[in-house]
């Protein structure tokens, strides 16, 4: 199998852009209710309407595409055992020092390779500290990488694909960064390929309640005696909120991804609302611009495997245990 590294430019067909505009033109929105503009019940109606109108009338994907294409992007073919070969899209920005460290930067859902863009200068050309050769791929079923048409493509297979991408680039040893599903993938890489993955950094650490007396008695006593700091209390409250009120998407995508997939594949408004809610709720009051939101959503809208494919990672993870 050839692993030839090919330069890549994002080139969304005019027909795809026109299709989105046409669907936005005839979009049907939910009727107003007394909770329509309350974030507690999901993406507010007024915000989704406003963004949909901006997407239809003003948002310039070609301008965003031009900016993204200034970044060094490539594709490479990888072979995953038991599956068809996959063309993997990735950004590859080399560090400016001879001692730069190869870094595999893996996104999650609803993320993409876009996550790394703003920190590329800090990673590849820092004034002090380590420098990195940054490899930021689109995971299979995401962005501009191929989709997987066969069941059973779980976290071990994602890890295999990412590891083989690094080998294709000549990186026999490397470090990893992972958030969300990128956390699961890079952790699996460290287990499956310890001879290559020499260090891992994660920005996804799940917080749970205090241990029980029966599972960890000394920790239980410590937690009972020592008070929590304010930031720890806030973190626990946030975690409780997430599992009580913010976890519905996960249950849907892990059990019935095809059902939600019909809406995401057919309706740009549905995709916008589905992703925008998470951008709002999960990013600590980051001041998203309309162009940033719609560029983020557009990477899913125009993805090679289609807007619905990325949800399959939830189903595969929980159906085919790994």
Automatic annotation (TrEMBL):
The lineage of its organism: Eukaryota, Fungi, Dikarya, Ascomycota, Pezizomycotina. InterPro entries: AB_hydrolase_fold (IPR029058), Epox_hydrolase-like (IPR000639), Epoxide_hydro_N (IPR010497), Epoxide_hydrolase (IPR016292). Residues 5-116 form the Epoxide hydrolase N-terminal domain. This is Epoxide hydrolase N-terminal domain-containing protein. Keywords: Aromatic hydrocarbons catabolism, Hydrolase. It comes from Fusarium oligoseptatum. PANTHER family: EPOXIDE HYDROLASE, EPOXIDE HYDROLASE 1-RELATED. Belongs to the peptidase S33 family. GO terms for biological process: epoxide metabolic process. It comes from the Eukaryota. GO terms for molecular function: epoxide hydrolase activity. The keyword Repeat does not apply.
């Amino acid at each position: 199998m050839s692993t030839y590294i090919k330069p890549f430019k994002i080139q969304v067909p005019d027909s795809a852009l026109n299709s989105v505009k046409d669907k936005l033109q005839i979009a049907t929105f939910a009727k107003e209710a007394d909770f329509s503009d309350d974030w507690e019940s999901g993406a507010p109606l007024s915000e989704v309407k406003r963004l949909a109108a901006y997407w239809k009338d003003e948002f310039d994907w070609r301008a965003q595409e031009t900016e993204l294409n200034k970044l060094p992007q490539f594709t490479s073919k990888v072979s995953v055992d038991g599956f068809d070969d996959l063309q993997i899209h990735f950004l590859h920005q080399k560090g400016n020092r001879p001692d730069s460290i190869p870094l595999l930067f893996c996104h999650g859902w609803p993320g993409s390779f876009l996550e790394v863009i703003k920190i590329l200068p800090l990673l590849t050309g820092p004034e002090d500290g380590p420098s990195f050769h940054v490899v930021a791929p689109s995971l299979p079923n995401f962005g501009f990488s191929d989709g997987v048409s066969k069941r059973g493509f779980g976290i071990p297979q994602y890890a295999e694909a990412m590891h083989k991408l690094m080998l294709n680039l000549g990186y026999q040893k490397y470090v990893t960064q992972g958030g969300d599903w990128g956390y699961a993938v890079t952790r699996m890489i460290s287990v499956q390929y310890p001879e290559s993955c020499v260090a891992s950094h994660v920005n996804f650490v799940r917080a749970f309640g205090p241990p029980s007396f029966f599972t960890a008695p000394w920790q239980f006593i410590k937690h009972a005696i020592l008070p929590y700091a304010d930031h720890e209390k806030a973190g626990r409250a946030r975690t409780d909120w997430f599992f009580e009120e913010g976890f519905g998407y996960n249950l849907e995508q892990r059990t019935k991804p095809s059902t939600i997939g019909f809406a995401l594949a057919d309706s740009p408004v549905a995709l916008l609302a589905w992703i925008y809610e998470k951008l709002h709720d999960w990013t600590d009051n980051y001041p998203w611009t309309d162009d940033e939101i719609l560029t983020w959503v557009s990477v899913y809208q125009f993805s090679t495997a289609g807007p619905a494919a990325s949800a399959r990672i939830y189903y595969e993870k929980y159906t085919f245990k790994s």
